[in-house]
Specification:
With about 550 residues, this protein is an alpha/beta fold. Helix content is about 25%, strand content about 25%. The protein contains 13 helices and 27 strands. It is elongated, with a radius of gyration of 31 Å. The structure holds adenosine-5'-triphosphate and magnesium ion.
């Protein structure tokens, strides 16, 4: 993989060619989200790609809100987007821009096109425009308004700007070619009337530019060199080039497309995430079951793990789906050596050591991470009454069950060997407590040479342990049935969130900070919830379990 990463992707090759041929002297990229929702893992790919390229070639990375459509845009989204990008570590320095700040330049650009005879005001309705446009097999028909004089067009466009027309009554269209095999070139609409309040420009404008006209101007005005976007814009590139050429920008930017990141069986599109939020299926954009960046953060993913994931996925020219397991692999790799391995019992049952002195507590010295001595050690209390996982005891064990059962001996991790001598049940047959004896000679893994003990289980001391809430997650959608039904509804997994309210954790885990991360031995990696964790009521999210189905592709 290291090798694969060190070879250049196709965008790097294009950039290097442009630099060596002197097409551009330096590199400027941008990330241009529309502030109409929260960012997701796919956007992270775009952010890290654009920022990474700017850094790699000593260039600039601009942050720009593509806020040319006032209907769906909100300040809440502007704020969340900026905070997510900062958290990911992409730095736009002092270059934070808003497309709406260029409305004047866009207006002037439109006037310039009219004066060149390259744009006209059209009175056809939206349906008529569609009808006249033709399709892949039929060429379009010219609008009857196509040959208006330059003077008339200038006057009508001015009237559009001055609010003389209702929404939809008139549009400005580029005059290109109604017979073009590329439908985007068939006299596309470039300005529309919309009497709406804009979050940035208020009521100043009642005409708004269309994306395909606005975007190349935004790039050109900022001196962007490589305008990197996703594949669905490939067919729009001729229009992008037409706009920058006709507006005669000196050193115009060029558009390069790459494949979107899709995760198999995971809801990524902004539209779908928004629907889950609005329908109350999840509790907000940062619900840890989502893959919005704020949700990944809350779940416990780190910027490093996301960066590693994006690097592993690579930059391709063809769409494909990636397994969520790969993202899980990346967070495990990131946390494995960096975080302490602690003990938490999620579904507790009491274990009593009959021959251990009553009222005594030993503070055992435990390495925080056996694979990384730099993390030091901590003290863990041990006493006569412990909690262990309910599933670590069985009355009648099947074959190959090496944990506790009557007569069997196991190792209590970091402590002693214990042997099960008895257990109690309630009237319904549920086990209520397990009785053991311990062997004082076996403290911390000593003195067991030649003794056959196959199982090691974790535990917490009942007296000192702290009660906690633990949230376990599964995929939001039902993987068997597939993500989407033909009618666009989603197949949801009813078990995507499981809340355990009776977990017990080592006392040290009550003193951590929100967003701190750990391994809970045998259970996975967990994160103190950034919203709900308090020292009085600790709440932990499982980021990922320990087992992986993902294998890194073999190195070449
Ligand atoms: P969605 O399709 O999820 O609604 P969008 O493309 O509408 O997202 P924008 O705010 O327009 O969202 O996107 C900002 C930038 O992020 C664009 O350059 C877009 O191409 C890129 N982007 C969006 N989704 C992905 C993805 N899945 N993978 C890679 N880049 C993406
Ligand atoms: Mg969009």
């Amino acid at each position: 993989m290291e090798e694969a990463q060190s070879s250049k992707n196709f965008i790097e090759l294009e950039i290097e060619k442009d630099l060596s041929e002197g097409v551009y002297k330096s590199v400027c990229t941008r990330f241009p989200p529309e502030p109409n929702g929260y960012l997701h893992i796919g956007h992270a790919k775009s952010i890290l790609l654009n920022y990474g390229l700017a850094k790699e070639y000593g260039g600039k990375f601009n942050m720009r809100f593509d806020d040319t459509n006032p209907t769906k845009e909100k300040q809440e989204f502007v704020d969340s987007i900026l905070s997510d990008i900062k958290w990911l570590g992409a730095d736009w320095e002092d270059r934070l821009y808003f497309a709406s700040n260029y409305f004047n330049q866009m207006y002037e650009g439109a006037v310039k096109l009219i004066k060149k005879g390259k744009a006209f005001v059209c009175d056809l309705t939206a349906e008529q425009i569609k009808e006249y446009r033709g399709d892949f097999t039929t060429p379009g028909k010219n609008s009857p308004y196509r040959d208006r004089s330059i003077e008339e067009n200038l006057e009508l466009f001015e009237n559009m700007k001055n609010g003389k027309y209702a929404d939809g009554e008139k549009v400005l269209r580029a005059k290109i070619d109604m017979a073009s095999p590329n439908i985007n070139m068939r006299d596309p609409v470039i300005y529309r009337v919309a009497h709406m309040t804009h979050h940035n420009t208020g009521d100043k404008w009642c005409i708004y530019p269309m994306y395909d006209f606005a975007h190349p101007i935004e790039d050109a005005v900022e001196g962007v060199t490589h305008s990197i976007c996703t594949l669905e814009f490939e067919d729009h590139r001729p229009l992008y080039d037409w706009v920058v050429r006709e507006l005669e920008f000196p050193n115009p930017p060029r558009q390069i497309e790459f494949a979107k990141l899709y995760l198999k069986d995971v809801v990524t599109g902004k539209r779908y995430i928004k629907k889950l939020v609005e329908d109350g299926v999840v509790d907000g954009w940062d619900d840890p079951r989502l893959v919005s960046i704020s949700a990944l953060r809350r779940r416990g993913f780190t910027p490093e793990s996301i960066k590693k994931f994006v690097d592993l996925v690579g930059v391709a020219k063809a769409n494909s789906e990636v397994d969520y397991a790969m993202l899980e692999y990346c967070i495990r790799e990131d946390l494995k050596l960096k975080k302490p391995r602690m003990m938490a019992v999620l579904d507790p049952i009491k274990l009593i050591i009959d021959n251990y002195p009553e009222g005594e507590t030993e503070w055992l010295d435990v390495d925080n991470n056996q694979e990384n001595p730099e993390l030091g050690s901590r003290k863990v209390p041990f006493s006569r009454e412990l909690y262990i996982e309910r599933e670590d005891f069985m009355e009648e064990p099947p074959k190959k069950y090496y944990r506790l059962f009557p007569g069997n001996e196991v190792r209590l991790m970091h402590a002693y060997f214990v042997k099960c001598v008895d257990y109690k049940k309630d009237e319904n047959g549920n086990i209520t407590e397990i009785h053991c004896t311990y062997d004082p000679e076996t403290k911390c893994g000593k003195g067991f040479e030649g003794r056959k003990v196959k199982g090691t289980i974790h535990w917490v001391s009942a007296k000192e342990a702290v009660k906690a809430e633990v949230r376990l997650y599964e995929n939001l959608v039902d993987e068997e049935k597939g993500k989407l039904n033909p009618d666009g509804t989603m197949n949801l997994n009813p078990n995507s969130l499981k809340v355990l309210t009776n977990a017990y954790v080592e006392p040290e885990l009550a003193n951590v900070e929100p967003e701190d991360k750990f391994q809970f031995v045998r259970q996975g990696f967990f994160c103190a919830d950034m919203k709900d964790f308090t020292k009085e009521k600790p709440v932990f999210n499982r980021i990922v379990s320990l087992k992986s189905s993902f294998k890194l592709p073999l190195q070449k």
